[in-house]
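hey so u asked for the seq, here:
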Amino acid sequence: MTKNIIKTFALGTLLTFSFSNAQQKPKVVLDNFFNNEKKENKETKVLESWHYTWNDTSNGGFSLLGEIFTRQGAEISTLTTAPTKRDLKNANIYIIVDADIDKEAYGGKANLIDAKSIKNLVKWVEKGGVLVLMSNDKGNSEFENFNKLAQEFGIHFNEDSYNRVQKREFEQGKVMVPAGNEIFSEQKLYMKEVATISVKNSAKELLSAEGKNIAAVAKFGKGTVFALGDPWCYNEYIDGKKLPADFTNYQGTEEWVKWLLQQASRK
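ran it, structure tokens below
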């Protein structure tokens, strides 16, 4: 059987988080099944995964995010199938970003989050896993099945769109983080065309845009769930080339990564 988890980056310098002897290296697994976009490499003519993937160095890639994780001591990998119990067993953090709608998916048919995957993920989080769910806004992300998973933790992504930015009017995408936030220091982040989030039970609101909640954190059993209505930390908005200097997405991403690893160390 072909191995489903593909390592893509080397281990960086370890932080002083306390992991068990069997898991000295925190393992961060990025979904490439529910988000399964591909395009042809112009040079090799080979189809390649892109858009929110570790090895995508274009504006929409996560290559810089991957570097931040590895620099903080994590080992990153990609999962190209729906998550099984075996896949999740040694994972500390599992990330699903921008679940496909049919028009985006390779082959024109999206891999929808199914009941078995939801069951596996719920049990894994309950035992101490850290689940990251990042949606997109209305018309650019799958909501119905993504919400079936999110709602297990008291989180619901609303099919809407806020912080809509006209051309280079970057101020329209600002998210002001007040002092005392659980994850981020006081700063100005950029999040464009964001889906809002509703919470219940133990889930807590985390960030707001246009007076609406756009992020949440939930504790579930021994684990943690982080949810945000935008894939906000892709290359274009953390590489320092496009946004005005008063936006601090790179700093915010570093703080977020450290927080995720702290939650994972409790597993």
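The chain has a mean pLDDT of 90. The first helix runs from residue 63 to 71.
lmk if thats what u needed
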